[in-house]
Amino acid sequence: MQIGSLCDNIKVNLNFGVGMKIIVCVKQVLDTAAQIQIDNGMVVSLGSSRIINPYDEFAIEEAVRIKEKKPDTEITLLSLGPEIFKDSIKKALAMGADKAVHLMDAKFDELDSYDLARVLARSIEKISYDLILCGRQAVDLDRAQTGPALATLLDIPFVTVVTGIDFSDDFQSVKITRQVEGGSEVRELPLPLLLTCQKGLNEPRLPSLKGIMAAKKKEVLTLSASDLDIETGDNRVVEKNLCLPPERKKGIILQGTYDEISGELARLLRDEEKII
Amino acid sequence: MSVDCVLGVVIEHDQGETKPVSLEVLSAARKLADQVSGKVIALCLCQSANLEADLFIQHGADEVCFLTHPDLQHYVHENYSFALLRQLEKSSFDYLLVPATNNGKELSAVLSSQLGVGVATDCISLSVNTEGDVEAVRPVSSGKAHSTIRFRGKKPHILSLRPNIFRSPPLSRQGETIEEEAQLPELSQRVHELVKQVGSQLDISEARIVISGGLGMQGPENFKLLEELAETLGGAVGASRPVVDNGWRDYSNQVGQTGRTVSPDLYFACGISGAVQHLAGMSSSRCIVAINSDPNAAIFSVADYGIVGDVVQVVPALTREFKKILAS
Description:
heterodimer; A: alpha/beta; 9-stranded mixed β-sheet; two-stranded antiparallel ribbon; 33% helix; B: Rossmann fold; Rossmann fold; 2 domains; 7-stranded parallel β-sheet; 5-stranded parallel β-sheet; 8 helices
């Protein structure tokens, strides 16, 4: 009896005393300012820099803000990608994350969204967490699947396209504002849960010099497919072709006074384009 | 007629009001079905079967399946995925098509990962290949490139379709309607309240006409000019990223790679220079009108009609002329 209640106490401490554990999923993408070309079925953009996926920056920032309010919070970054992703991991650590897990294996190249979520879920299975934050989508593949698919595989609640996160005083539940087309909705949920972050949630900070120095000492654990004991390579969605979008036909510049131009445009849109 | 292929379409509605994109998805499914001897089933989760079944049939459904439950007033992903999974277990579907809205995209993710099947997000073109399988084109990097994908393995294959692309007029058709009680899970989350934004009723991703303003609008007060034009044409007002970052407009209206990607019939770029990210978000629009004081602005490279001039003066002139022509 006594041992039982002792165990219960320990369990309570594990859950509530150690502070919040947050996992932030981070992807590195091509700078959104980049012009791209297609070479051999691959996107290339010579000389363009790589950045943290902008929506993932909202996720990192939100985690750091939670830690500022609740200093015993621990933020673990989770990133799946090649060696070059280390740049973004370093920046996210400099923004205030505590440590990182880098899933790196040639077998992880070009996973479809289901397999990607499977690999992430496998790597998270062994970590305890209260909150998982992702971006609402990566701005390169634009699939918007990783967050909700990961939550589904982990069997935890999720909310996508989040623009507001408001914790209860005891950090046990959270009020979430979600963007929907033409409006928003508010939901209240208990932890643990996964959220995908949308612009409007916060303004991501730039890493401070102190943060950059501190990041150098932070732990980055690299794991491969065999470390995770997971098989991939059975994509359910296969890319057959990648090309630039069709070029738009050359347009015309309308000439005349503003009234003449406006009248002509109205006529063109009605009679030629048949839109209005 | 023998059916070789079953295509399910998930209807998105808001408190019983069907979203136009749902009809577009039905039309797209119909076009595929006609090529593969397929049957289109509209799956409509709602409180009671009072949505317009006839409208679904006219847009391509052979069968309208109402899954009803008192708790299905609003979309909640747990309810939808739970009820749909049971439906997918009961009868076999080859393809499941959903609108590429925020709701549709997350729903596709849940279903795909629960079933272990492939999913393609935000498709803009669908075709049937020589083997009789559906292939899809989807934009990547907000449309800087187009990716053609095909599916492998277990079915149903799931596709979400971008609004505004697959619009088709209604047809005179017959179909049947069935109603079943939906099974719902114990909810771990509930919609606490639904706060609708006032003002812009029409969402920019669903609007046929989008009028966007950039820094050339000179200030937030001038956006009322765009709202007047939008009201005249029945459109929605969007904005470029700098405008949103300046706090002139809400982020939900931002068009571009870190905002929304839109494909309306008509897009007005007013005082927008045409940064790569913005062009990515709107260059799949059918017709583009650009108004800018700088004749060398990059926006003119994608415009069908360009007007070089002061946007604050041009827009009211446009509103006047459109009013005239619409009244005539």
